[in-house]
Amino acid sequence: MIDNPIIEISNLNKWFGNFHVLKNIDLTVNKGEIIVICGPSGSGKSTLIRCINRIEVHQKGKIIVAGTELTGKIKNISNVRKEVGMVFQNFDLFPHLTVLENLTLAPAWILKISKKKAEEIAMKLLTRVQIQDQAFKMPGQLSGGQQQRAAIARALCMNPKIMLFDEPTSALDPEMVKEVLDVIKQLAHDGMTMICVTHEMGFARQVANRIIFMDAGEIVEENHPDEFFSNPKWDRTQKFLHQIL
Amino acid sequence: MKPSAFSISKPLITTLVLQAAVIGIIFYAAHGLLVNTQANLEARNIASGFGFLSLESGMPISNSLFPYSAADSYGYAFLIGVINTLYVAFIGIVMATILGIFIGVARVSGNWLISKLAEIYVEILRNIPLLLLLFFTYSIALAALPIPKKSLAPFQGFFFNNRGIYLPRPIPESGFSMVCIGFILGIAAAFFIQWYGARLHRNTGRIIPCFSLGLVAMVAFPSIAWWVTNGPLSWEFAVLKGFNFKGGLVIRPEFSALMTGLILYTAAFIGENVRSGIQSVNIGQINSSKALGLTPGLTMRKVILPQALRVIIPATTNDYTSLVKNSSLAVAIGYPDMVSIGGTIIGQNDQAIEIIAMWMAVYMTINLIISLIMNWLNARVQLIGR
Amino acid sequence: MSSDTCSDTHGGLLIFKPSPDLPPPLVAVGIIAWLKKNLFSSKINSLLTIAGVLFLWKTIPPLASWAIIDATWTLSPNPDTINPGTTEKTGACWAFIFVKFRVLMFGLYPEQFLWRPILAFAIFVLVCAITIFRILQTRLLIVLWFLLPFPLFFLINGGMGLETVEQSLWGGLMLSIGLAAIGIIMSIPLGILLALGRRSKMVVVKSLCIGMIESIRGVPLITILFMASVMLPIFLPQGMDINNLLRVQIGIIFFSSAYIAEVVRGGLQAIPQGQIEAASSMGLKSWMVTYLVVLPQALRHVIPSLIGRCVALFKDTSLVIIVGLLDFLGMIKASAQDPEWLGYDAEAYIFCALIYWIICFSMSQYGKSIERRNQW
């Protein structure tokens, strides 16, 4: 793959109080690359991707996203957040707004585009995730899978260059996992740069360019998916794979 | 009959018999009460009925929003009391809400010192009786302020003493109506700007600072009218004559003490509602707003507040009705609200039953109106779920 | 990656050894980090902090010097120093509280019988302690609390060998606690009945209960007290007379029961339908379901709110001053207006606030702790 880094993380360290959650993380993500991060719970994988749009603040090291370094500067933070979309485990749609309003809120107020235009874009995206007929319902009236697809569409509304997924399917009933993964696969197919924290190993093998395995706040292994599953380099990786496969 | 949830379900006949028995007991008791009451009233020579309302009251009222003299009727005196109660309740609700929001926001502030200060405020105020607070504010208004001769005068024409707070009274001259029209136009313009701004945003996405522009309009229109008509307002200053001030606008110590106490006390409760409302909003909502790039201001306005209101409104409805009921403590510091005036009337003619019935009717009406308004508001912010 | 520290191999695999946890950099922990995060995280926060510190700087030192440093604690043998007006007083005069202490606590209760309310108070505190430390079973505790008023009333009132003390002499904190405690104890059964009545299927009973609850909750306590104190004598048969204290107590009980009914109703509503169905399916009659299954759970559920009502009622008893009883606040006010001791309002009210605050705050903290631990 041609080197065209869009995310560069070097020597990243983070503490929660006295607890060292991220230790010397180095990671470079190229444009169009799809990275899957896996690892046992508490290994710091969610914290890592939350650092990428500064929902979590790191204390040491450097994060450069789309050419902007994340520091305390409000302007840099908001620039990065415009480029990075994020989907959460619990969907976190705004429960007091309709699905359509969920999608148009940020474009209308941050990108300052007209309501009509914003709604057009939103309907297009809702069609893409196949819930166009739910547009005028409240999030509470949707199934989990539909809510997560709406959340993906909401993130896409800001036209991001990078998408972060924080365990997008772990709060879903099993029969809904596929519909959400299909949407993410479609996105991957369209060339979106993505970092996805997930336990769906089948999905990882299918779409990932690279798999990163984390434990105890460190990146243990970074490998091509085929290698990762059939021929891991580290004992810790093998143990993890034995436990979940 | 199906066994039902909580009721004591019995065959239909038993239920009917039971209910009939209850009705019988009630009628028997009511009849007994009526007989006793009539006998007692006769023995004590107390009149009954509402005829007394048209009689001359002969009582002075110190704080009245409308012209009143001792020659007016009991009915009018009571009405003055009702108006005073409404006045106190209205100002109290508005001010306590504003202060309460500040305290609630301070409670959840990331600033440790500010949030601790707000917590101390809330914990002190919620755990002492309101009446004590009123005695305290009243004794400050009376005892800590000097006698009229030694009034504090922080500004020209302003006097603080133990007879009240004296302010200059504005006297409109010809042309003042222009300023009023200017003010109304200003408000209309502000509404128009809001509407136009929302439309502009909807149609083109452009955002104009509606709030600041509206504020400018609200100031500009009356100011221009003021300037054109050459300042059509003169001031009547309070003047010390003998032992007291004459003229000017007076805020009596009873009123300021009652208002201060009620507002400080109720604001502590409203502040708690605001805090729990804001804290009830899931942290995920804030994270996803951040991830979408919403600014903290927008997150507050568009995401947190609408959800927090679901918790805040029902709790605050209770606090508003409590405030209205608590305003009756005015009687303890001599502010002539409805209870205070009614109490005086009872003292004069012993017609307690009628006065208490009137009190109940008025309080229940006020509280019903508050509940209706707040329930309507609440229905607008509730979520639709699956 | 941590390859340099973990180069051992095992069956062809590299062995992962987690690198050691490092202590956070000073910017992340320690006093400076705490200050930066909690007090100076932004320009606005820094300004607010400075304003807060200034406010404390302006208020605390003068308050402290008035209340503690310059305060008069003991009665000086020289009458000039305690006689207001003759000397310029700079600090608080707490001696005033000491002088008035007996009146503030017990009203005009005769001095030779003071051991009786003190003993009653000791028993009351003991029962509170038994409740808080859960020394007895819940069932026994309930019985204990319902029996408690009788011996205590006997102790304070007298009779049967003990010399009777006129009720008009009762007052002070003793009266406040008494009115509130009896008010709560008596209004709980009444409130439960009202709450059950409100959920009854019998229209007459239901509307009667709703009418009672809503009309009491719709008006201020003062009007209820007026009613009890002025109207009750008119309703009673001629010749039957009850004293003012009892009338006020009846008013308080009615007032409190309406609020407790609403609290209990909240608890009843929180019981899932499944509980009722399960109990009914075991063949229990519906009144049994209510008294054996629903009510005990509902009451357990509402204990924190009931404690909240205790706090509210204890604060509300201060209103009895308006119908002429001298409770704690009443005695405070009377003492502040004592012509021999004019000018000590602030001391009186602050002492009053302190006592009310200690009692109410401990009660609400106790309520919160029950809620947290889900103890009952």
What does this structure look like?
Chain A is α/β, with parallel strands linked by helices and 245 residues long. Chain A has nine helices and ten strands. In chain A, the strands form two sheets. A six-stranded mixed beta sheet of chain A has the order 6-7-8-3-9-10, with helices on both faces. In chain A, strands 2-1-4-5 form a four-stranded antiparallel beta sheet, covered by helices on one side. In chain B, strand 1 and strand 2 form a beta hairpin. In chain B, helix 2 runs antiparallel to helix 3 (112-126), helix 2 packs across helix 7 (253-280) and helix 5 (176-204) packs antiparallel against helix 6 (210-228). By secondary structure, chain C is mostly helical. Chain C contains 15 helices and two strands. In chain C, strands 1-2 form a two-stranded antiparallel ribbon. The longest helix of chain C has 31 residues, at 286-316. The two termini of chain C are 53 Å apart. At the A-C interface, strand 2, strand 10 and helix 9 of A face strand 2 of C.
The first-to-last residue Cα distance of chain A is 29 Å
Largest sheet of chain A: 6 strands, mixed
Q: What's the N-to-C terminus distance of chain B? A: 32 Å
The mean pLDDT of chain B is 87
Q: Mean of residue pLDDT of chain A?
A: 91
Helix-strand category of chain A: alpha/beta
Low-confidence segments of chain B: 1-9
Secondary-structure element series of chain A:
EEEHEEHEHHHEHEHEEHH
Helix content of chain B: 55-70%
- Give a quick account of the main beta sheet of chain B: strands, pairing sense, barrel closure: 3 strands, antiparallel
The order of strands across the largest sheet of chain B is 1-2-7
Strand share of the residues of chain A?
A: 25-35%
Which structural class matches the secondary elements of chain B?
mainly alpha
* Order of H and E elements of chain B: HHHHEEEHHEEEEHHHHHH
Poorly predicted runs of 5 or more residues of chain A: none
The count of DSSP E runs of length 2 or more, i.e. the number of strands of chain A, is 10
Helix content of chain A: 25-40%
From the alpha carbons, calculate the radius of gyration of chain B and give it in angstroms: 27 Å
Please indicate the percent range of residues of chain B in DSSP E strands (runs of 2 or more): 5-15%
Widest sheet of chain A: strand order?
A: 6-7-8-3-9-10
Shape of chain A: globular
